[in-house]
Design goal:
The protein contains 11 helices and 3 strands; from the N terminus they run H-H-H-E-H-H-H-H-H-E-E-H-H-H. By secondary structure, the chain is an all-alpha fold. A 3-stranded mixed β-sheet has the order 1-3-2.
């Protein structure tokens, strides 16, 4: 009888015997990793002592911290340029000089004017001698007010009525120009500015006129005018004119002599106070009559002490 599969004995392993298993595959050894440091709990951080601050002497000076890439460049404040400083100084001088000079000349006589310098360059000489208003005959201020500025004591530096009349006259007769300037304006021109009719000078003249009226007053304005006005070639002021034409002091001038001096003021290099022509004689007579009105109506009262 043949053996069948069911009759074949089953091999069983005893408990002491190990089954014959295939050997495991060998992998390459990996390097040992250092264990991660354990993080201290938050409570330990609060109790840990702070490290001492680094010593300033020991810390190396690494210079300024570099700017991060893309940051805008720092701009340093630019210093004032020399040209800017010069322009600023000029502006301050232009603003400060007029009131400073006006204040100085309230007490001191103006030493010289630009017109005097110009005439000196032309070879006309220079004769002038300062006299206070009290040392000038009253007839001369009265004649000058009558001839040049009848409303001198009532206006504030500008006679707009006289300006309108002068403008109308000059428009009708452009060949014979008439001025509308007051004694205050003429004093400003003679003392501080140059001769001429340009707009710049007229603008500065107006500014100085306001300063004169505010700082000097009427008496000082007329006193300065009578000492700097041109009265002939190289002749400036009442004293020099009185000596030149009449050989006497300004305090001794008669009303007729004062009228003749006032008559030549518009054109002192052309007209003569001694042996005058017909026009100057007629003009002197009109001024003499107007000076009587000035005296009787007290139109020169603002210059009396």
């Amino acid at each position: 009888m043949s053996d069948t599969e069911d009759d074949m004995p089953i091999a069983t392993a005893s408990p002491d015997e190990t089954p014959n298993l295939p050997e495991p595959t060998m992998w390459p050894e990996l390097p040992e990793l250092a264990p991660e440091p354990t993080q201290a709990p938050p409570d330990d951080l609060a109790t840990a002592p702070e490290p001492p601050p680094p010593s300033e002497s020991a810390a190396p000076d690494l210079g300024p911290e570099p700017e991060p890439a893309g940051a805008p460049a720092r701009t340093l404040p630019a210093g004032r340029s020399p040209i800017g400083s010069i322009l600023l100084a000029i502006m301050l001088l232009l603003f400060a000089a007029p009131p400073a000079l006006t204040l100085i000349y309230k007490w001191l006589p103006p030493p010289i004017t630009l017109l005097m310098v110009e005439r000196l360059a032309q070879g006309q000489g220079l004769a002038k001698s300062w006299r206070g208003l009290g040392d000038i005959a009253p007839a001369l201020p009265q004649a000058v007010i009558a001839a040049e500025d009848a409303r001198f004591c009532t206006h504030r530096g500008f006679d707009f009525q006289a300006m309108r009349k002068a403008a109308i006259h000059n428009e009708r007769r452009p060949g014979k120009v008439r001025g509308g300037s007051t004694i205050s304006q003429q004093t400003a021109k003679n003392v501080f500015l140059w001769p001429g009719r340009d707009y710049l000078r007229k603008g500065l003249e107006a500014g100085f006129t306001v300063l004169e009226e505010a700082i000097w007053g009427k008496r000082r304005i007329l006193e300065v005018y009578l000492n700097v006005v041109e009265w002939g070639p190289g002749t400036y002021g009442a004293e020099a004119a009185a000596q030149r034409y009449f050989h006497k002091d300004a305090r001794d001038l008669s009303p007729g002599e004062a009228a003749r001096l006032a008559a030549i003021l518009p054109s002192p290099l052309k007209w003569k106070a001694v042996d005058p022509g017909a026009y100057v004689q007629r003009r002197s007579a009109r001024i003499g009559a107007a000076a009587v009105t000035v005296r009787e109506d007290d139109l020169a009262g603002c210059v009396r002490r």
